[in-house]
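Give me the fold.
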Amino acid sequence: MKDARPVPGPRPLGRQGAQPRTEIRRLGRCVRREGFVVNHKRVHRLYRLEGLALRRRAKKKRTREPREPIVVPTRLNQRWSMDFMRDTFASGRTFRTFNVIDDLSRENRTIERALDAAAAVHG
């Protein structure tokens, strides 16, 4: 789409030392004050055509809480871990297991078997 009026070109678009995020807004206000009909998208496009670029914002760094060490279990059945596993039969049929393991002895407390959802519906 062609611009309705040419935008001033001979003078440089940016200002030295200005805040990079507010510079485009300020430039848009100045151009509108001079009587040109522009929106923020056109100002941004012209800003980019001049070879200027907005700086990317740095991610806000959050302070991390210090990690607490994992308490090692000292008795049987003090802490269990659970996990889902998936495997496939030679026929291509998949099944899932729900495993509960004692963390101290590494002994399986239970393994529950469940076929995939289609097998549960169709038998």
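The longest helix spans residues 20-33.
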